[in-house]
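Please check the following.

. . .
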Amino acid sequence: MPIDLELELPAGEHRDRLLAALANLIRRRGFETFVSAPLLLPRSEYFPERWERSVSGARRLLRRLMHYAGLGELKVQLKAWRERPLIPGHLAASDVDGHAAAWFAGIHDGTCEFGLELDQLRKEDSLVAALGHEVAHAYREHHGLVISDRELEEKLTDLTCVYLGFGVFNVNASLAVETGGLSASGERLLYERNSLGYLSPAEFALLLATQLAVRDDAAEQREVRSELLPNHAALLAQGLREFSDVAALRQRFAIPEPDSWPPRVGIEALARLPDDEEPTSEGALEHGPTLAREGGVVFRVKGDRALPLSLLGLGGSAILGLSLGAGTFGFYALCALGTAGGVFAGRRLRADDCSGCRARLAAQADQCAGCGQSVAGEIATHDERLEAEERYHARHGGAASDSHEGEEEDEQEDPLLVLFTAMLAAWGLSRGLLAEDADAAQQELAVGVGRLEFDTEALNAAWLGGMRFNDEAMLFVAYYCTDSTSPSTQDFDILSTANKFDGRPSNYQRYATIVDRRFADWKAARQGRPA
């Protein structure tokens, strides 16, 4: 796959549409946030909580982003899954593979409900961008800005991230290429391309350049450029050059002169979260060791000294071969023997480290001297840490929970997938497609669905427990739910766009009508042929 790096900013009508959308947001929500909110940088003063690679850490990060967005009075609920299905939620940030990296499920009774795919915890640099996108979704819903066009709404949400001051993280996450990494399965990669968001790097850079130009703070511009990846920094510099007429730019967005602006919000004033007793001061989002949670556990990551000793053996053998005047064959033979000897000896010398802070662990240590956490077991690589923690907490009664109200830490079944499965089961029952050998409980469910008594949990459990339709209907279900391009994905979008997707009978009736048409089209396409 080629590495596409944009080298030019949007121009012409494309640029005009982007700036018009930004102007509309500024008009509706005010210019004050755009010119006075802090522009977040990956530094400890912006994220004073100690970072931990866990759902608790992600939830604290969410609360801080909500605070920066002016939504600190709302509660936060975060649920996490090992891998969210490809059926998308209506408000989700997608990663490069099309899976939902994180998603926003609405505001209910003063609580913002978010979801997170657990693999995102491995990607500290892009986690803020993914969660910031979802916070922007919450901001737009809270202030009545959401539109019905799902694709356009996602792009407007990215634009809102810049307006709120999250732009640096979103620009960097929009495209990042790393070399020499490993895939999730451990395969060595020539390079890895990561992309997050719905706007391109050039679109993000244009919007961020607009904000910086309007604010006209040379020191702030230098700081922001220093935190961007090189290609993104070049795009930003290009934008700042093109927006050199600051007065005209402010006039375009109906932004008054700076003497009428509110005071710039200092990051120190925002350090304390609404329900915190004291601000914390430990650095967050560090690019060095990941800090473990207080009271948590870590694992011994197996290591050895094969590499350093093999290099030592190679160097020593080369020196010996030269000093002895060994011929070409003898020289290479000595180098091969020295390297092999080093590997052989090194593999017998353990050099384990901590899965939390990566400090070296003594051979028999049951506690890490670096982070002070208890060593709960042994794993082969650092990538196995999250799975090992889940197994540990499952054996010991669940993960350590955060004391904040509304948090749910354990991996759970996706409620949207439960609801969608229940609707599909209800459709088959209401259309008389239940297999002839169905038991009494399934037949009773069919009667209930006929009366529009829609029991989501019971229907989902019955389907997972082995409910079957007749042969033709089961073939249709296999076609309907095949993969991310299947009709079920499209129908999910139809149902969830500009509509609260829940278990109300009206939602079920809409869904059943859609599936009736899918079923009729499928049968017509088959033309009665056997599968």
Observations:
- Residues 505-526 form the longest helix (22 residues).
